[in-house]
Design goal:
Radius of gyration: 19 Å
Strand content: 25-35%
CATH class of one domain: Alpha Beta
Strand order of the largest sheet: 2-1-6
Distance between the termini: 49 Å
CATH topology of one domain: hypothetical protein PF0899 fold
Structural class: alpha+beta
CATH architecture of one domain: 2-Layer Sandwich
């Protein structure tokens, strides 16, 4: 399962972000996940608590937003959602298409609690 490696990767990015921003804690990580990315959201949720244990993210919330898939038919110019049509164009029936959106995984937001400034 490649999802474990994906969780490790975005947790490391969140830790780097937190360190650069002098965070006391990461409260929430919001991901945007394309519906045809091949990544299973349930596994991201399952592995997240294990990966964040003992880190600045421990106890944080993982939110996953779905990005709808969108493709462009190179035959007739129609833009449509391929998950509803099995990648065949609903207008002309062609399977020739270019993916516009819905494949990626992006960190949309990392919510942090800032450290208190130290008194000198």
């Amino acid at each position: 399962m490649h999802e474990m490696g994906i969780v490790v990767s975005f947790v490391e990015m969140a830790e780097e972000f937190a360190a650069k921003n002098n965070a006391a804690k990461v409260l929430k990580v919001v991901l945007q996940l394309g519906e045809i990315s091949g990544i299973e959201p349930r596994y991201l949720h399952e592995f997240y608590p294990v990966v964040i244990e003992g880190t600045i993210l421990e106890g944080s919330e993982l939110v996953i937003e779905t990005i709808a898939a969108s493709v462009f038919c190179t035959g007739c110019g129609t833009t449509y959602n391929p998950t509803r049509t099995d990648f065949k164009c609903p207008d002309c029936g062609s399977g020739r298409c270019d993916v516009i959106d819905g494949r990626g995984l992006f960190i949309k937001e990392i919510a942090i609690a800032e450290s208190s400034p130290s008194a000198f």
